[in-house]
Amino acid sequence: MQGKEMGNSVKDPHTSAPWRVGVLFSRTGFMSVIEETQLRGTLIAIDEINENGGINGRPIEPVIYDPGSDVRSYGQYAKRLMVEDGIRTIFGCYTSASRKAVLPVVERLDGLLWYPTLYEGFEFSPNVIYSGATPNQNSVQLCKMLMEQFGTRFYFVGSDYIYPRESNRVMRELVRNSGGTIVGERYLRLEADRTEFIPVLRDIKRAQPDVIFSTVVGESTTFLYQAYHDIGLNPKSLPIASLTTTEAEIRAMGYDVGEGHYTAASYFQGVETEGNSRFVARYRGRYGDDEPTNTCLEASYFQVNLFARTLEQTNSLDTKLLRSSVMGAEFDAPQGCVSINPLWGHADVWTRIGRANRRGQFDIVFQSPSSVSADPYLVGYGRCLENC
Which of 296, 294, 280, 252 shows the shortest CA–CA distance to 117? Predict the structure, then answer.
């Protein structure tokens, strides 16, 4: 199958056959609350490209599988895409666990995974383009703002898998090296329900932190905030701050429940750019006025556009050719101009901090003047806030 795909893209440049790409996002299971939006962002981008004539006269054809929020299924479907479907390029994955399930497949079979989700950093693969934020593009500025405005005592609560533990490791070093303390740290299973957060919130009340830093993901995010609301805590004095709570989760939990809490992200629906106005209007026109955009959806959208621009130049789905050609590529995304950092293969994206309001949107309280260079290993920060 791979030979057939290569034949269509390299040996016969005049073919009108579609460019076939893989798409791996969960439409079912506990991660569907956010991954469904990533799928939508991917498909909107593909539809726009195809409506404008495709790439070099050839449409993009997505081959879509639903891993059902099961980590093993991501790796299995990635292998099916590459071995049985003859596909070299895959857009997909939200959790770091799912990315790491796909990683050995694309490395062994020389595919290219486009990963549109913020993550914990400290990874590099020649077979991945990372278009989500790394800790220097979200955690560093969020930690600085929280310590300045609320205090130095942090309580960590997260889902029990790779990303939360590693993200908290980074935040822990930032807090401690800047004079703060961690007064509690709890992890719950990925499928944790509302009742499981009640003991955690009681422990938080006992510990009296200044800030709750959440790395809870998926449907459980809504249950954490609802339990917080039920127990009577106040975001004005003890906010939940997160990297993973987007407009999608705020909508699911209830606008009144999410109001007053903070998220650091490269993009919010309220970003004031002409490109974002068009993006939001198209999204609403397709999915409804009550369906918000979010940072993971937006990254899914712009990475397909970066892929398309690169494919137009290479006229080939060869992994090495695509990867080398996309380095340094720029795109005027809804969040603002973004690019792929040629040193790391990660996206240079914007840093923003938003506070959720009563309308289910975020009021932007901090915004970088331009995109921030990716530094996935925090080489330039020394794990403290002095250099940010």
Answer: 296
Same domain, yes or no: 201 and 175:
yes
309/72 Cα distance (integer angstroms): 32
β-pair type (89-92, 19-24): parallel
157 and 241 fall within a common domain = yes
Instruction: Flag whether the pTM goes above 0.90.
Output: yes
3-class secondary-structure state, position 223: helix
d(CA 223, CA 217): 10
From CA 201, how far away is CA 230, in angstroms rounded? 10
Beta strand pairing call for 89-92 and 112-115: parallel
- φ, ψ at 82 (rounded to 5°): -80, -40
* CA nearest to 315, candidates 14, 50, 112: 14
Task: Dump pLDDT digits (tens) for 23-61.
Answer: 999 999 999 999 999 999 999 999 999 999 999 999 999
Q: What is the DSSP letter of 180?
A: -
C-alpha 2/C-alpha 81 separation (Å) is: 10
Same domain, 363 and 235: yes
Residue 13, helix vs strand vs coil: coil
Please tell me the predicted confidence (pLDDT) of residue 13: 56
